[in-house]
Structures are given as C-alpha cells and as structure tokens.
Design a protein that fits this description.
This protein has 3 domains: about 210 residues, Alpha-beta prism (UDP-n-acetylglucosamine1-carboxyvinyl-transferase, Chain); about 220 residues, Alpha-beta prism (UDP-n-acetylglucosamine1-carboxyvinyl-transferase, Chain); about 220 residues, P-loop containing nucleotide triphosphate hydrolases (Rossmann fold, 3-Layer(aba) Sandwich), CATH 3.40.50. The chain contains 22 helices and 33 strands. The strands form 9 sheets. Strands 27-31-26-32-33 form a 5-stranded parallel β-sheet. Strands 3-16-18-17 form a 4-stranded mixed β-sheet. The longest helix is centred in the first third of the chain and has 18 residues.
C-alpha cells in the first residue's frame, strides 16, 4: 500500500492478466460480528485485511472474544450471546459495517445484561447518520445517549443487569436512507428472541436490497432463519440463538471486482482478458449485478463459480440510463466508465451516496469535471457526459476508498482519444486501505503502459555523494520504483569474485552480468538485496565491493549486458534511478535529471561515519584519497564517464541535510508536472 500524499498515474493503454480479489468487506465484518456473538469457535477463511476489519477485530477483542490466527485462517471464539466485558470504549474509524451493527448488538446486550459502551469514530463517521437506528431501538427500552450531534455518533449504550426489552409490537425502521440500519437490527435482535418471535417492519422503500440478502444468507449460516415477507416485514423466530457453522469462507469483494470489470471493458483489447478470481456467478453479493450493467455498456463478460473474465466489446462504450438502487457502491464505477462512452450516462436511485464515506454524488461530480466531463447532479442521480477534451487532473479522494479506486480508471484516457494520454494524480492514495490495501499494486500488475509514458527521475553523482539515500527517499515520497544502478555493478563484481572470474576477463564478467540473478526487496524487505538467493545487503556497501564495482563498470561489455536490466526497472507509476550515467546514457530522455555534488572532504566524512556505525575502522584521509582517485577514474573512463547531462540540474548537498535535498528534488519535479492544481 502506498502511504504517500499523492500518487501519479501515467497514461495507461491496455490491460490483461489475473487479479485475485481481497475478501468482501460487507461479508467480512458481518461474519466477524456473527462469529463473535455465536457459541463456539468459527474458522474464518479468506477474511479481508483492511482498516474496516481491523477496527471490528479490535472491538471484538476488547469485548472478550477469542481471536487466534492459524496461518491464513482466523479462529473466532464467540461470546455465546453473553457479555464477558461490561464496559468498553470502542473506536470504529469510518466503518459503517462496524458502527451500526455493533451499536445495535451492544444496545440490546447492555439492556438485558447491564453494561456501558461508548462507540466513536473518525470525524466523517460522526457525520454519517445513525438516528434512524437509534429511534428504532429506544422504544424497545434501550438507553442510548448521543454524545455529539443528535442523530449521529458518537453514542453511549447503557443498561442494568436483568433489564427487559419491549418486543410485543413490530419494531419499525426507515429503509430509505441506509440498509445498514435494518442489517444492524436483524443481527442484534436474535440476542433477544428467546421468549417470543421478533418482528421488524420497514418504513419506506428499502435501498440496497442485495445487502439485506447478504445479511439473511449469513444469518442462516449461523442458525438464524429469518422469515421475510417481501422487503417490508422480517420475523426472527422465537428461540433463535447463534451457533457457529464451524468454518466459513469469505468470498471476494464484488464491489472491488467492479474496477477490474470496468478495466477489462475499457482496456482489454486485442489480447488476453482481465481475469478476476474470488467472485463469480455463484456470488451472494448484490454488487455482482454490476456485470449486467457493464454488459449493457459494451463489456464482454464470461463467468463461472468464483471467476469472471472480461474483454472489451463495444467501443466506445454505450451510455446508459440505469436505476442503481441495488448496486450503490459499484455504481460509482459506472460513473467513471461513462467517461469512455459515446453518449451521456444517467445513474438514478443513488441517494444513499450522500451518506457514505463522503457525499459521493457531490464528490464524483467535482472530480469527473476535473478530467473534462460534463456532469449534472441531483438529490438521487448523476448524469455524466464524456469529455470533449481530457485534462490532466488532480483527484481529491475525500478519504473515500472508492473515489480513489474508481477515478484511477481515468488514467486510460488515451484509449478514448487515440492520442497521447494525460496523467492522473490521486491524492491520499492510502485511503484504499479501507477495503483493498494493495489496489494500486494490483492495478499496475495487469495494466500496460508505454515505457515512454512512465516518468523517470535520474540522480547521478560521484561516489559517496549521497545519491543512493536521496534516490531512495525521493522514490519513497512518490511511490516510484527504485533503481540502484551501483548495486548492479557491485553485485556483478561479487558474482565474479565468487565464481573466480578474473576482473580483467571482460567477456567472462559480461556473461555473468547478462544472467545476473539479483533480487531487490519490496515492502517490508525494502532496502535488502539477494544475489543467487543469498542476501548481500551488507556486502554491497563494503569499500572492497565498491572497488570491484568501479573496475567492472569501466568495461563496455559489462555495461551493455546490464543495460537491458536497467531499462526493465521503468515500470508504472514511475522510476527513480541513481548512478553515474543514468541521465547521460541509460535514460537520456528522463523527465528530470539531477546531478548531485559534494566536496571530497564532506563525502569522506560521510563515508567514515557510515563505516564506523557498521563497526569498521577507517582513516578519513585514506577515504578521501580513495574517493578522489575513483572520481578521476570515473570521469576519465572512455565509456559513460561520470558527468552531468547537459540538461541536468546541479544539486550541491555539501551543506544540506537529506530532507532539504529531497524537498529540493520534489520541488523541481512538481514544477515539471502538468497539473495546475496543488498536490495537497
């Protein structure tokens, strides 16, 4: 997951490959709460790992549920409907699928068994309505205090041991704001149905009916057979109680599948499809109906149990007029597909967008206009007219995961125009952690980009100038790939040494370089390097290894052998490459070239400090003499001498700290981007 202020997406032009979806958020949090309320231990397979499930797990742990991981399986030992903790403060982030069902369940349990529970979240959660659920619970005898604005979290739920619930009359709840209110009641009220049936009646038209289907399906798995009369009356039988199914699998998230279905419809042309695994024709999620909407716009979709395959069909896509009441989350993806249509698209029945993680109608209208679309919005609809002229855009995400994922598809705009594509900047990309932490990595894994469109920053300079540290920091700040070209030469020297290949055998060393089995770590292994399966991270930084690198780097055949490997690092979303000839030889067309300089005295002091910290003894005078000798050798070599590119920007960091140097490079980079809006 990218934890950076913004992520720049280069123009992308195709897609194929296989995507394995994370587990459904809606199913994951329902299963967790049901397992937490049930008697016995439930083995939960393929649980989504995201912000929303983490807050639910933290809440269940605080309430006394047993949570134990066995490999990829989470074992949840439930409370059996009996509180073991009677007082807790629970922070639930921005997870509606945690806040609303937990509020209802704890209100019921506190009333019957005694307790005091406070539920809060992030500021946006305190703007998401819960008043209709509160109004449904209070007539039963639940004591609920609204600690902030009436009708919104945070809440306090309290009661005394031996309390009673008034269940003689049907419990009434509004259905036209959010289906989560009904879901919350259906999950909480089996805890109180021992003595009589419990009836829930819905006022108004129920929105998002397929999500209630998910709730009913899962309740049945945990022993609660709710009787449904249409979508207006639900009866929980007398004597209902939760019991574990023993084991349960969480299917892939159908809402998340919508982005890759759309991707296939837009960009899987002339080759292999986009294959989506984890959800398919047997899904219990209502958002699987997105497949039909995508087909209506022109997608070619095949499906089977647990899988989908998508090709582009009709092109441009067709504009549609569709009631999306049943697929409110996935409907956001239709609004972005509308950018690639040949006529306007009108989506209705989406009033619930207004009370989601953000006001999604207003947010979507604002961001679609940035890329050039015409947008008309209303209380429960949005109409999108495709852009006449696409614009490079800075997309605000409003801390809403679906805004980030949907609008990422705007980076395929070159396919709509047949001309050079425009980049798209996604602000706060880490918001995808709510449901799909690895979304952007997954997208880049199946999307194709013309290498010429992948931006490159080169940072060259002499030995010990700090270019490696600067390059790594800039790459981390931008979410870009990193190429430490010096490591390639150092590893080649180590490989030659290990194999007994003399360093004056240019052809022999070049053969080693051509088949160099080198792996750089990513994520938690970032900064680590393996050669032929053996970690060489520390060896790479030894002075002796640097001397090996200086010798092999002077060989034209070795440089030629490594050239293709260096070019292969140019991958979306971008690359920062450091070395001595990145801007002059390897990436002469780089968008930004930096040549880092520092005086020999400062560089010798830095190298001395590094060696001392690693436990090596060294003389500053000897280090300086060695650096000056290597500088002369690197400057005077006949192949790719170490010198600034003609269009490089010089950065003398003799008196600059790393943070100041990073900010200088990022400032130069920002000035060269096409975005007129600020980056944050």
């Amino acid at each position: 997951m990218y934890d950076i202020p913004f992520l720049d997406l280069p123009p992308m032009n195709g897609a194929s490959g296989t995507v394995r979806l994370p587990g459904s958020k809606s199913i994951s949090n329902r299963v967790l709460l049901l397992a937490g309320l049930a008697q016995g231990t439930t083995d939960v397979h393929d649980l989504l790992d995201s912000d929303d499930t983490r807050v639910m797990l933290a809440a269940l742990g605080a309430l006394g549920c047993g949570l134990q991981r066995q490999g990829r399986v989470l074992q949840v030992t439930g409370l059996g409907g009996r509180l073991s903790v009677h007082e807790a403060r629970l922070f639930l982030g921005n997870a509606g699928t945690a806040m609303r069902p937990l509020a209802a369940a704890l209100a019921v349990l506190a009333t019957l068994q005694g307790g005091r529970f406070e539920l809060s979240g992030v500021p946006r959660m305190h703007e998401r309505p819960i008043g209709d659920l509160v109004q449904a619970l209070r007539p039963l005898g639940c004591a609920i205090d609204e600690l902030g604005n009436p009708g919104y979290p945070p809440l306090r739920l309290s009661g005394q041991p031996g309390g009673r619930l008034t269940l003689d009359a049907p419990i009434r709840v509004r259905g036209d704001v959010s289906s989560q209110f009904l879901t919350a009641l259906l999950m909480a009220l089996p805890l109180a149905s021992g003595g009589q049936p419990v009836v829930v009646e819905v006022d108004g038209e129920l929105v998002s009916k397929p999500y209630i289907d998910i709730t009913l399906n899962l309740l049945a798995r945990f022993g609660i057979a709710v009787q449904r009369e249409g979508w207006a009356r639900f009866t929980i039988p007398q004597g209902s109680h939760y019991r574990t199914p023993g084991s349960i699998h969480v299917e892939g998230d159908a809402s998340s599948a919508s982005y890759f279905i759309a991707l296939g419809a837009i960009a899987a042309h002339g080759g292999a499809p986009v294959r989506i695994e984890g959800v398919g024709s047997d899904s219990i999620q209502g958002d699987i109906a997105f497949v039909e909407a995508a087909r209506a716009m022109g997608a070619q979709v095949k499906s089977g149990p647990g899988w989908l395959e998508v090709h582009r069909g009709r092109w441009p896509l067709a504009g549609i007029d569709r009631d999306c009441n049943a697929i409110p989350d996935a409907a956001m993806t239709l609004a972005v597909m509308a950018l690639y249509a040949d006529s306007p698209t009108r989506l209705t029945g989406i009033a619930s967008w207004r009370v989601k993680e953000t006001d999604r109608i207003a947010a979507m209208a604002s961001e679609l206009r940035k890329v050039g679309a015409g947008v008309v919005e209303g209380a429960d609809f949005i109409e999108v007219t495709p852009p006449v002229r696409w614009q490079p855009a800075v997309i605000r995400t409003y801390d809403d995961h679906r805004m980030a994922m949907c609008l990422s598809l705007a980076a395929f705009n070159g396919l709509a125009t047949g001309a050079a594509g425009q980049p798209v900047r996604i602000l706060e990309p880490q918001c995808v952690a709510k449901t799909f932490p690895e979304y952007f990595e997954t997208l880049f894994g199946v999307a194709s980009t013309d290498p010429a469109d992948v931006p490159v920053i080169t940072i060259d300079g002499p030995t010990a100038s700090g270019k490696g540290t600067l390059a790594a920091s800039v790459a981390a700040a931008l979410g870009f790939e990193l190429l430490d070209s010096g490591a390639l030469y150092r590893a080649t020297g180590l490989a030659a040494q290990a194999d007994g290949v003399p360093l004056d055998d240019e052809a022999g060393v070049a053969r080693l370089a051509q088949w160099l089995d080198l792996r750089f770590g990513h994520g938690p292994d970032s900064g680590r390097t393996w050669l032929r399966g053996r970690e060489i991270t520390d060896e790479l930084r030894l002075e002796s290894t640097g001397l090996l690198a200086s010798r092999v780097a002077a060989m034209p055949a070795v440089r030629a052998a490594l050239h293709g490997l260096q070019l292969a690092f140019r991958q979306a979303p971008g690359l920062v490459a450091d070395g001595r000839d990145m801007g002059t030889v390897v990436f002469p067309e780089a968008a930004l070239k930096v040549f880092l300089t520092a005086g020999p005295a400062q560089r010798a002091e830095r190298r001395h400090k590094q060696l001392i910290e690693k436990g090596f003894q060294a003389s500053i005078a000897d280090l300086r003499a060695d650096l000056e000798a290597r500088d002369e050798r690197d400057r005077s070599r006949s192949v790719a001498p170490c010198k600034p590119a003609a269009d490089a920007l010089l950065l003398d960091n003799s008196e600059l700290g790393i943070e100041d140097s990073v900010q200088q490079v990022l400032g130069w980079w920002q000035a060269r981007r096409p975005f007129s809006a600020p980056s944050s």
